[in-house]
């Protein structure tokens, strides 16, 4: 809650900025006011035009022949065909039936840590090459951790 | 009713929850994909608008719907995750038009607390992984390998427990998420994390932003070149990235839906809770964000999803009102709105309450729902079948046939109506005053019964009577030629088209006559072995005035035969079986597919697909339409040909997606029908009913008709009063001042739906229920309204009122009120008294006359012992209570003692959303995990303990949140043709706008359909590989058990959509002929 003023300050600043951009004519002359209001309106319309213009178009034909429905008419119901698959490809490829790894997050982190601590040693071991693999089988990392 | 129940959807969900746009069905096709809770719809963008392609049932409630493009793929894949922790990745196979499953899986964890703020499913924009937030404190990752295949999922611990939104950020070298969360001091912040796939852990992300708007609830990731996210709050909108922070204030509003407009992410459409559509623009100089700007564009339905489609057209999906297709205009309209509504799509959701009424007194129920919410609230009148709106009627007894004639071939309108009686024929015509008056057609024979009448080529008319065929000029109306029946024979049945006449004289003689210019030429005459019962030569080939086939129905051998024309050579003989003769045959084409229809004297109808070139018949199906002989006739509505089957249960036969559908007509008995299109009655039908000839227009041809009555406020309860022909509704309207709602009781005329009277409730007073009833010793009809004072400082209302209104001179008059010590959740009429559910208590009130003649409510007795008694149904002296969280209990009222006692209860902890009494012993309940269940009273059990327990006998996962049950039916119920029994039904309404039916079946039928369902599951596969068995299994936090004693009607009725080959496969394993299966399933479809 203590932080809200921060946002509020930002808000105020923003308002000032927008006011400046919207009302570039700072004037006290009352006779010019209505004229200015009109100018501001035009400015706003032009601004909206620039914001609203240039809508993306992927295929200019899309919706080109669509006429608006009668607004007093009842809303329409789109009724596509209902799909009832009878083919066998609703079953995914065998390696694409996904499950979650069964290892607990805590255990996974334990193993990861131990592997990390092992890594420099195994690097050296690799350079010394041909050390039998099984010597690393014991969770040495765990022991050294302790 | 019984414990063997059949559940089926009459109106599919219409609440749009998700939508997305992409190239799904082909690389060059743009598709809009919409999720409606348990279904997805695929649409194609075309020059003419949205073209519906496919409606796909999903075996799950859709929690996430995303399109994504894996590397090296030309089109998008669809990712769907369901609320019960299944997901699938679908791909469209354009060649076979099939959805194929690329991957699927189960992402549930055995332990974990499901998230409070809904499930989140997101896909990395660079397609490196799928992220899921399903349980508090866990973020699940499904990685993609470099070939786009999914790998084993793993969980990462997420420190933030109260997550509001998570999105992937664009343009990060490592996949990075932004997490919007609330801390334990209720402050809201955004944090970013990189997902390290190698270490299966989070790494602190590039930036974070603390202390956001207290209402911040939505993150919008911004694509490159800008990157970063937009954070939508209730009072501010913030743009945030590693290098920039910009904020703008907004008018306080709740924004839950956004749609990106530009690929570069510079403009977004936002919709707030009042349905105002805003355009949010990121002002930037090249890649540097300099500010934000928001503009109000106009009003739409309150959106739940927004998808920018193409060329300034936008889809607005709504949960609270109709979904819309809108166009963004460059110039504002007169009201200053830049939004133009191009189309609206019906949404009944959320249905908070409904009632079943027979407004037109035709013996058919209509459902009137309280639909929508907030400003989009409305009443919807839902009616099954096709309505004939009578325009004019005359009394005429004994009509034996009806035909309309034009005065010349190119006249767009009909002029004459030929009405045939047993001893005469009358000719009616529209006069200058648009009245139907009797006239003459000089060349026609008015002294005998007309068997057939027809406009013929060259401005001629043809009339067939029992002794002759007469050809008359339609301009001079003089007789041009005549063919006489041979001496000793008379014409029994006849048919004709514009250039041909086919008739049967006694003794099996079949005569074929051609109509030429001013001439009738007998071309062929053959003799068949039996008498002919019916004939047809309706042209269905390319030539609309000439047929190359004739259909002939026969006595004695009960067959229908197809002959060639003009040769009258037998193409095909089809034995119909049984002893009932065919009474009407018709050749017709639906959606370009030729059919032969053949109706029997007992109301059954055969349909065959017809091969025009060789007369071969296929795809034989039999349905029961009524119990009396049917007469078939074609008519056109909106340039499409349909068939009207006149009988005791008139039906319109039409085709949708190449499937024949049968829709009831809202008339009781029709003997004959012909189209009658005149200037005064355009596109009308002339209909002969008992003792009456009427002219009427016909509704659009579809199964369910929905009429919308917009209210502009949220209707929560509805009730109909037959005596005063009114509806009473409880509504609420957001007041212009902040945070206040005003609640009303409004009275509506049941024909015009105009609001004729209003009673405003007190400040903070909510209308909770409304009932129409009368009391013992006072037969006047009253509206009783139960209310609650919902004060902001109270957890549970401690005060409410019961208001008794009478309708006097069309006005609501408050006659009595009674203060209660809590919310009056429910009122029931009970033994001539009023039964109220008030907080934890059930309370019975008497309606007592005072000395001055007025009445008051007097408390008689009550029953404590509920958490909150929310739903109550009664039957005789029994009271069934649905509790907030303690399932169903059964109470009984003891007259002598004047007390209410508990008899039995279900000890499961079900959080109820609706209850209904099926019969004396079986009660139906719906609960908030979207399940249905039935419980049974054990009155014969040996011990008190067993008698005090309601036994759960049926369980089923519906996947819909039911708000209301009502006994009744959407269709006109006539005894089933075979069993003579009426299957009892209960209608339910749901949050997603589903109207469904629970039907209690006889046990043998239940067993038969159960077997069919088991076999269908093997043939109709679950989309995405999802399992039907798992989907329908009863499931809540405590248990998951297989469905029992409920059948899935939606699956069973999809049997009718199967190809013949698949039907035969099912038929083979069932050991029941396809025809029999079709007939039995068709009969079920007529329940709704």
TrEMBL record, chain A:
Q: Where is this region: Disordered?
A: 18-37, 62-97, 113-146
What Gene Ontology molecular function terms does this protein carry? Answer: ligase activity
**Pfam families in UniProt:** DDA1
| InterPro entries documented for this protein | DDA1-like (IPR033575), DDA1_dom (IPR018276)
What keywords are assigned to this protein? Ligase
GO BP annotation list:
positive regulation of proteasomal ubiquitin-dependent protein catabolic process
Out of the domains of life, which is the source? Eukaryota
Residues annotated as domain DET1- and DDB1-associated protein: 50-116
Does this UniProt record's set of keywords contain Ligase? yes
**One Gene Ontology cellular component annotation held by this UniProt entry:** Cul4-RING E3 ubiquitin ligase complex
Q: Does the keyword Ligase apply?
A: yes
Q: What's the family?
A: Belongs to the DDA1 family.
Q: What is this protein called?
A: DET1 complexing ubiquitin ligase
Organism whose genome encodes this protein? Rhynchospora pubera
TrEMBL record, chain B:
Q: What's an example GO cellular component term for this entry?
A: nucleus
**RSE1/DDB1/CPSF1 second beta-propeller domain spans which residues?**
389-698
RSE1/DDB1/CPSF1 C-terminal domain location is 743-1057
Alphabetized GO MF terms? nucleic acid binding
Q: Which InterPro entries match?
A: Beta-prop_RSE1/DDB1/CPSF1_1st, Beta-prop_RSE1/DDB1/CPSF1_2nd, RSE1/DDB1/CFT1, RSE1/DDB1/CPSF1_C, WD40/YVTN_repeat-like_dom_sf, WD40_repeat_dom_sf
Alphabetically ordered keywords of this record? Nucleus
Q: What is this protein called?
A: DNA damage-binding protein 1
Which organism does this sequence originate in? Rhynchospora pubera
Q: What is the lineage of its organism?
A: Eukaryota, Viridiplantae, Streptophyta, Embryophyta, Tracheophyta
């Amino acid at each position: 809650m203590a932080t809200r003023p921060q946002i509020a300050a930002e808000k105020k600043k923003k308002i000032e900025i927008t006011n400046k951009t919207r009302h570039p004519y700072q004037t006290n002359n009352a006779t010019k006011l209505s004229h200015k209001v009109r100018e501001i309106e035009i400015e706003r319309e032009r601004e909206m035009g620039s914001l609203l213009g240039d809508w993306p178009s992927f295929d200019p034909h899309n919706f080109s022949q669509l006429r608006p429905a009668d607004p007093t008419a009842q809303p329409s119901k789109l009724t596509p065909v209902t799909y009832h698959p009878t083919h066998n490809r609703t079953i995914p490829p065998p390696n694409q039936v996904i499950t979650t790894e069964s290892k607990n997050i805590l255990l996974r982190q334990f193993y990861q840590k131990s592997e990390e601590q092992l890594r420099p040693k195994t690097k050296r071991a690799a350079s010394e090459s041909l050390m039998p693999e099984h010597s690393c089988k014991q969770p040495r990392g765990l022991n050294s951790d302790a | 009713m019984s414990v063997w129940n059949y559940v089926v959807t009459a109106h599919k969900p219409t609440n749009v929850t998700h939508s997305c746009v992409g190239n799904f069905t082909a690389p060059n096709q743009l598709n809009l994909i919409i999720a409606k809770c348990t279904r997805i719809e695929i649409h194609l963008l075309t020059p003419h608008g949205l073209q519906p392609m496919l409606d796909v049932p999903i075996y799950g409630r859709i929690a996430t719907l995303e399109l994504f493009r894996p590397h090296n793929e030309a089109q998008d894949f669809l990712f769907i995750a369901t609320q019960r922790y299944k997901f699938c990745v679908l791909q469209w196979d354009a060649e076979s038009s099939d959805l194929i499953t690329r991957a699927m899986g189960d992402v549930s964890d055995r332990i974990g607390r499901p998230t409070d703020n809904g499930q989140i499913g997101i896909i990395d924009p660079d397609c490196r992984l799928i992220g899921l937030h399903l349980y508090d404190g866990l973020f699940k990752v499904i990685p993609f390998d470099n070939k786009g295949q999914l790998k084993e999922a793993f969980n990462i611990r997420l420190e933030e427990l109260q997550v509001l939104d998570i999105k992937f950020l664009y343009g990060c070298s490592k996949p990075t998420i932004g997490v919007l969360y609330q801390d334990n001091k209720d402050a809201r912040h955004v944090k970013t994390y990189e997902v390290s796939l190698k270490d299966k852990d989070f790494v602190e992300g590039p930036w974070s932003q603390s202390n956001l708007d207290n209402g911040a609830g939505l993150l919008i990731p911004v694509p490159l070149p800008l990157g970063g996210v937009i954070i939508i709050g209730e009072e501010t909108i913030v743009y945030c990235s590693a290098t920039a922070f910009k904020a703008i204030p907004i008018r306080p509003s709740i924004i839950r839906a956004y749609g990106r407009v530009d690929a570069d992410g510079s403009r977004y459409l936002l919709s707030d809770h009042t349905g105002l559509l805003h355009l949010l623009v990121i002002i930037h100089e090249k890649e540097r964000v300099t500010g934000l700007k928001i503009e109000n564009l106009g009003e739409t339905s309150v959106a739940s999803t927004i998808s920018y489609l193409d060329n300034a057209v936008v889809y607005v999906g709504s949960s609270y009102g109709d979904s819309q297709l809108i166009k963004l205009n460059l110039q504002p309209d007169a009201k200053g709105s830049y939004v133009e509504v191009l189309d609206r799509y019906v949404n009944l959701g959320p249905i908070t309450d409904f009632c079943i009424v027979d407004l037109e007194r035709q013996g058919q129920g209509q459902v009137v729902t309280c639909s929508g919410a907030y400003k989009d609230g409305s009443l919807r009148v839902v009616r099954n079948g096709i309505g004939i709106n009578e325009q004019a009627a005359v009394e005429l007894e004994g009509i034996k046939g009806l035909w309309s004639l034009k005065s010349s071939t190119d006249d767009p309108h009909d002029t004459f109506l030929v009405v045939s009686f047993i001893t005469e024929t009358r000719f009616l015509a529209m006069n200058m005053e648009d009245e139907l008056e009797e006239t003459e057609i000089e060349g026609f024979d008015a002294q005998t019964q007309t068997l057939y009448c027809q406009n013929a080529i060259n401005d001629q008319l043809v009339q067939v009577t029992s002794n002759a065929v007469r050809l008359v000029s339609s301009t001079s109306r003089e007789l041009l030629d005549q063919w006489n029946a041979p001496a000793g024979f008379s014409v029994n049945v006849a048919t004709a088209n514009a250039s041909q006449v086919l008739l049967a004289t006694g003794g099996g003689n079949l005569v074929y006559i051609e109509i030429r210019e001013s001439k009738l030429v007998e071309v062929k005459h053959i003799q068949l072995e039996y008498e002919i019962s019916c004939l047809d030569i309706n042209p269905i080939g390319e030539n609309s005035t000439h047929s190359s086939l004739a259909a002939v129905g026969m006595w004695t051998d009960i067959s229908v035969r197809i002959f060639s024309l003009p040769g009258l050579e037998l193409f095909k003989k089809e034995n119909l079986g049984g002893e009932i003769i065919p009474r009407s045959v018709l050749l017709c084409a639906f959606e370009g597919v030729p059919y032969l229809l053949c109706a029997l004297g007992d109301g059954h109808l055969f349909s065959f697909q017809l091969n025009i070139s060789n007369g071969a018949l296929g795809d034989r199906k039999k349905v029961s339409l009524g119990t009396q002989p049917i007469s078939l006739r074609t008519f056109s509505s909106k340039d499409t040909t349909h068939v009207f089957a006149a009988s005791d249960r008139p039906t319109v036969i039409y085709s949708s997606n190449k499937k024949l559908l049968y829709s009831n007509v809202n008339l009781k008995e029709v003997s004959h029908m012909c189209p009658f299109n005149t200037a005064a009655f355009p596109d009308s039908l002339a209909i002969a009913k008992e003792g009456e000839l009427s002219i009427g227009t016909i509704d659009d041809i579809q199964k369910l008709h929905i009429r919308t009555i917009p209210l502009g406020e949220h209707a929560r309860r509805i009730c109909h009063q037959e005596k005063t022909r009114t509806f009473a509704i409880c509504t609420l309207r957001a007041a212009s001042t902040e945070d206040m709602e005003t609640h009303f009781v409004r009275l509506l005329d049941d024909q015009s739906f105009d609001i004729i009277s209003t009673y405003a409730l007190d400040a903070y007073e909510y209308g909770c229920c409304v009932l129409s009833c009368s009391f013992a010793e006072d037969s006047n009809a009253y509206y009783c309204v139960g209310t609650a004072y919902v004060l902001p400082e109270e957890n549970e209302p401690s005060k409410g009122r019961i208001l008794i209104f009478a309708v006097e001179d069309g006005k609501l008059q408050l006659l009595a009120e009674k203060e209660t010590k809590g919310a009056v959740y429910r009122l029931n009429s009970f033994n001539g008294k009023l039964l109220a559910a008030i907080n934890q208590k059930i309370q019975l009130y008497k309606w007592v006359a005072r000395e001055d003649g007025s009445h008051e409510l007097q408390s008689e007795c009550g029953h404590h012992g509920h958490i909150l008694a929310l739903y109550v149904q009664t039957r005789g002296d029994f009271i069934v209570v649905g509790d907030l969280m303690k399932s169903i209990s059964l109470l009984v009222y003891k007259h002598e003692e004047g007390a209410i006692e508990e008899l039995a209860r279900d000890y499961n902890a079900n959080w109820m959303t609706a209850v209904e009494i099926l019969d004396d012993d079986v009660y139906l309940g719906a609960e908030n995990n979207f399940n249905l269940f039935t419980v049974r009273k054990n009155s014969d059990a040996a011990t008190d303990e067993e008698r005090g327990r309601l036994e759960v006998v049926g369980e089923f996962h519906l996947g819909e949140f039911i708000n209301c049950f009502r006994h009744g039916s959407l269709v006109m119920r006539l005894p089933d043709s075979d069993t003579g029994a009426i299957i009892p039904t209960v209608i339910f309404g749901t949050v997603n706008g589903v109207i469904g039916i629970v039907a209690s079946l006889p046990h043998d039928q239940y067993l038969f359909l159960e077997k069919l369902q088991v076999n269908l599951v093997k043939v109709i596969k679950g989309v995405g590989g999802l399992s039907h068995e798992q989907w329908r299994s009863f499931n809540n936090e405590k248990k998951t058990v297989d469905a029992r004693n409920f059948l899935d009607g939606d699956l069973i009725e999809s049997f009718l959509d199967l190809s013949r080959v698949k039907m035969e496969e099912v038929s083979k394993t069932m050991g029941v002929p396809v025809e029999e299966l079709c007939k039995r399933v068709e009969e079920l479809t007529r329940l709704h």
